[in-house]
Amino acid sequence: MKVQIKIVMFLLINMGLMTLPYSVLSQNKVHVVTKKIEQQLEFKAGESLMITAEKANINVEAWSGDYIDIMLKLISKHPNEEIAKKELAYIGYKLEKAAKGHSIKNYFDANGRNARIKGNLLFSYTIKVPYECALDVTNLYGTLYVSGIRSNLKSRVRFVEFTLKDHHGGTMLESFFSDLTVENYKGHFTGSFEKSKLRMAAFKGQIDIKSNYGEIEIEGGTRDALNINSNKTKVSFNAPNLTSYNYRLQNKQGKIILPNSLGNSEISTDGNMEHYDREFNQSNTSIFISTSYSTIVLRETSN
Predict the structure, then answer these.
(1) Domain boundary among 112, 132, 152
(2) How far apart are CA 197 and CA 201, in angstroms?
């Protein structure tokens, strides 16, 4: 294992606009104290990396290296410089060898010191992993960006801005109160969402999603199947040629909206349920969408 640890302490002072009165400038001062840790971990085929984070910004990208490269930043912010320095000690992390790879965890510990956190404490991960490294990532508050991996991803996010790009492999994603973006994905995507918003584009494979009180927008692509079971979730499917798919849509106490090219006359009503069932070609990809108290929209886009 290669280990290199660097600790950097620096202060950044935001003085605001110099044209403002001194009293306003004093209120805008923010002292930022940062501690940086760099470390390299050995990687063997079949191993994974587990990240358990809170109030963190996480960036994970695949690369051609044969080891895991990690840079961690512990960040403390407060208008009072001494408080910012003192509270940096409340931020902790653990990096351990796990049974099937490595695990990293960050935490905030003021209770053990009989102290109340007065400033803004943050944690940052910048990580490079080999393409075949599987990931298991949990984050509570913050951001999560994953790009380029060619293995499986398992993730749980809450109050997080989540971005997944250029991923080839299986994904299992649980989301609560989060904003989700998935682009250029190839594999089997399984999602369980609560009060979350998803935008997915350039997808090849299969999508299986359950959603409550959310919004889902899917850009057309080649896929084995699209299955969305939702409640009180607005669902939009956009594609340049909508007749390249077969549909089974149902909406309870809501509306199904189709472009003129498909014909709204094909929508049927059964009590408080609207249906749209259409097979254009037996070999087409099957799309099933179910929701309630919202809308299902099919849009035809330009190539």
Answers:
(1) 132
(2) 14
Tokens of 243: 């007749």
Q: What are phi and psi of 242, to 5 degrees?
A: -70, -20
Domain count, the chain: 2
Closest to 302 measured CA to CA, from 209, 240, 222 = 240
**Selection from 223, 302, 297, 214 nearest residue 262 by Cα:** 297
Give me 23's structure tokens: 């009293």
The partner residues of 16 in beta bridges, in order of sequence, read: none
Write out the residue range of the structural domain in which residue 265 sits.
Answer: 186-303
SS3 25: helix
Are 118 and 193 found together in one domain? no
In whole angstroms, give the CA distance from residue 234 to residue 297: 8
Q: Which of 97, 116, 132 is the last residue of a domain?
A: 132
Which residues 6+ apart lie within 8 Å of 24 measured at CB?
A: 16
Q: How far apart are CA 127 and CA 71, in angstroms?
A: 6
pTM of the model: 0.88
Q: In the block, which residue shows the tokens 């940052």?
A: 124
Contact 289, 235 (CB under 8 A): yes
Task: From first to last of the 303 residues of the chain, give the pLDDT tens digit.
Answer: 444 434 334 333 333 333 344 333 345 689 999 999 999 999 999 999 999 999 999 999 999 999 999 999 999 999 999 999 999 999 999 999 988 999 999 999 866 555 688 999 999 999 999 999 999 999 999 999 999 999 999 999 999 999 999 999 999 999 999 999 999 999 999 999 999 999 999 899 999 999 999 999 999 877 789 999 999 999 999 998 999 999 999 999 999 999 988 876 689 999 999 999 999 999 999 999 999 999 999 999 886
Q: Is residue 1 part of a domain?
A: yes
Cα 158 to Cα 40, 272, 278: the distances in Å are 28, 33, 37
Question: Is 74 a member of any domain?
Answer: yes
